[in-house]
């Protein structure tokens, strides 16, 4: 097993490198880079040099004799050259990529072009929203879907199985953003009830609340966005659980266990459960990471939540390359490591699995 883990760890290097190369090359062909973004903002502002800190502002300060708007006359070439130097665009693409990867290997992700904050601090600032949506959505989906899937498998073909299948398929078909709007209209003062808050993770007086009050306020705020982000997750997990149980129930060892007179609950949860839950339990790390880092832009926007979804979208629109590539490298690395953890979970749940033997 150690040799398998070592091979998978070594495979991370070329895989992550390939991801970064492909995305870096693609950005070279995307029009409207960060320099163009800044110039477009400056040419439409009251002061052409306002908001630019550091040497670029100093280099441009001597290029105008007045504080009047100079956008109509164009920006000084010296200013543009200094701006390119600060952003690193005075170097050829290959050199920029090598410098970027060298910094990322040392976990130096740099600073956002437009927010004057390091990429790591920016991600940490957005994490509470992603932790909330990712963690609770995954936990609730597992808590509901696994018992429901088991019940559906036991009563396969019954009326309960039929109408629950219809419900979860309808829920799967409803877009998350549409369900979020429906929840707002019904329960957040849209047209009917004012039960839940309209936006944010906490209230304005959150810091002044007691520990119990903070917990209640937090749950009060996350109820609607978590429901909206979880609604479509039930179908896949429930049907996967059901089908896994059905496959195991039909096997010979289950028939033998029943023939020995074991109670049905002992057969299901003492024998079938372990084998049927292998693929579901072992896949938990990758499912959680997928939900955690995916970040639902639309749901975050609807509920005014500033998470990783909105961060990624805003960085892409603004061509904030340090944020784009820094988060891509970091989350890509985590995803690859979690893939190894998922394999280890398979072995933990069922020690009979041996990846080294299968590879051989």
Automatic annotation (TrEMBL):
Q: What membrane topology term does the record carry?
A: Multi-pass membrane protein
Entry's Gene Ontology BP terms: microcin transport; transmembrane transport
Entry keyword set = Cell inner membrane, Cell membrane, Membrane, Transmembrane, Transmembrane helix, Transport
Q: Which residues form the signal peptide?
A: none
User: Can you say where in the cell this protein is located?
Assistant: Cell inner membrane; Cell membrane
Q: Which CDD domains match?
A: TM_PBP2
Domain named ABC transmembrane type-1 is located at 127-346
One cellular component term (GO) for this entry is: plasma membrane
Fetch the Gene3D superfamilies from UniProt: MetI-like
Pfam families, per database record: BPD_transp_1
For whether the record's keyword set contains Transit peptide, the answer is: no
**Superkingdom in the source lineage:** Bacteria
Keyword Membrane attributed: yes
Q: Where are the transmembrane segments?
A: 9-30, 131-150, 162-188, 218-241, 276-303, 323-349
What does the sequence similarity comment in the record state about its family? Belongs to the binding-protein-dependent transport system permease family.
Name of the protein in question? Inner membrane ABC transporter permease protein YejB
């Amino acid at each position: 097993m150690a040799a398998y883990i070592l091979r998978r760890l070594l495979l991370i290097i070329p895989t992550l490198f390939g991801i970064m190369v492909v995305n870096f090359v693609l950005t070279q062909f995307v029009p409207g880079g960060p320099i163009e973004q800044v110039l477009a903002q400056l040419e439409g502002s009251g002061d052409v040099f306002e908001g630019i800190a550091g040497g670029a502002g100093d280099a441009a300060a001597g290029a105008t004799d007045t504080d009047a708007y100079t956008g109509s006359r164009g920006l000084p070439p010296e200013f543009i050259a200094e701006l390119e130097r600060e952003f690193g665009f005075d170097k050829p693409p290959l050199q920029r990529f090598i410098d970027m990867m060298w910094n990322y290997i040392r976990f130096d992700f740099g600073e956002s072009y437009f927010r004057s904050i390091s990429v790591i601090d920016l991600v940490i600032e957005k994490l509470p929203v992603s932790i909330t949506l990712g963690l609770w959505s995954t936990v609730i989906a597992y808590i509901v879907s696994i018992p429901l899937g088991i019940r559906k498998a036991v009563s396969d073909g019954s009326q309960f199985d039929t109408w629950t299948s219809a419900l979860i398929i309808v829920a799967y078909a409803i877009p998350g953003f549409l369900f979020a709007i429906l929840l707002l209209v019904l329960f957040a003062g849209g047209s009917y009830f004012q039960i839940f808050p309209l936006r944010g993770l906490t209230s304005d007086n959150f810091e002044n609340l007691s520990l119990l009050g903070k917990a209640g306020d937090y749950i009060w705020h996350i109820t609607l966005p978590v429901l909206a982000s979880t609604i479509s997750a039930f179908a896949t997990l429930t049907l996967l659980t059901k089908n896994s149980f059905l496959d195991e129930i039909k096997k010979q060892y289950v028939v033998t266990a029943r023939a020995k007179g074991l109670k049905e609950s002992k057969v299901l949860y003492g024998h079938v459960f372990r084998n049927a839950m292998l693929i579901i339990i072992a896949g938990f790390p990758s499912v959680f990471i997928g939900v955690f880092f995916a970040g639902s832009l639309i749901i975050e926007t609807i509920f005014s939540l500033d998470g990783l979804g909105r961060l990624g979208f805003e960085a892409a629109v603004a061509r904030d390359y340090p944020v784009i590539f820094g988060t891509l490298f970091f989350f890509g690395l985590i995803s690859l490591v979690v893939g190894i953890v998922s394999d280890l979970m398979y072995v933990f749940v069922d020690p009979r699995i041996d990846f080294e033997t299968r590879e051989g």
